[in-house]
Amino acid sequence: MKTLESTIAMDWCRALTLLLLGIFCLQACSKSHPQSDSTTNQANMLSLSEKGKSAEEKIVNSQNLTESDVQSLPPTELRILRNACFARHGRKYDSAGLGEYFNNRPWYKTREDYNDNLLSAADRANVKLILAAEQQTGAGTTSNTISSTAISNQHTPQQPATTAKVESDGGQLTTDKVQRAVDKALDWTRKGGRATVIGIQEIPRENSAKADVRFDSFQYNANSYDMPISKDQKTPPEPDVRDPKFYEKMYQNRSGQVHIESYSGQGGAILKHYTDGRWVLTGVQFGFHGVNANIEIR
Predict the structure, then answer these.
(1) What phi and psi values does residue 157 have, to the nearest 5 degrees?
(2) What's the whole-model pTM score?
(3) What integer is the mean pLDDT of 143-157?
């Protein structure tokens, strides 16, 4: 009886030893072979829930979304849906996340002649609705609210105001003077390309003026929501895969992604005329984005 008990005890000891040895080997393997590539790929992968897919289908078919269509969707899905309004018309996406996602959508086809004027009334209404939902989730807290006027033609600027003075003669607005002011405003985020002032229209009854601006391959630094940010801002480093809070920090890294966006098409500059005779550039808009400014022209 004692022999049987001692045999069973020895078997349990061996089993426990093997189990502990196996656990130790697994830990050693995970440390010597970090799964950074596959884990990072999973973190980078964008996808939609069933509710998000239904909303995307409505967007692709040029149907108006309702608040219930986007309610409770996470910021990552709202970002995809907002960009789907542009992607369905052929906008090209160079950033890895959105580029890979749209390239795998059967309806997506890039266009060399793409510009935001291709957007329909339904697209503009959907962008406005999704932006409002993003701001409710906190995704849009870095930018100003975009109004219905901004969606149709004007676009709310989104950057701390830049102040400068442009010397002039006679206090009259000229293309050259407004061009210099526009360049100063855009230099905050510009990475390349051109923005050319092609005309100015004064609106005396509103004490303001609007300048038409043509953007040619204008490149600007953008955050993960494609909004202009400082050209000096960079993506934070990725966390170590062995960090216990890897997934939490990777999400923070993804939300802090910085990339270069490109825009070609029409834009505008807004100028205000004060009673003391000063003209001040208050903002420059391009696409659905823009920059704030406080640049005096005199």
Answers:
(1) -65, 160
(2) 0.54
(3) 36
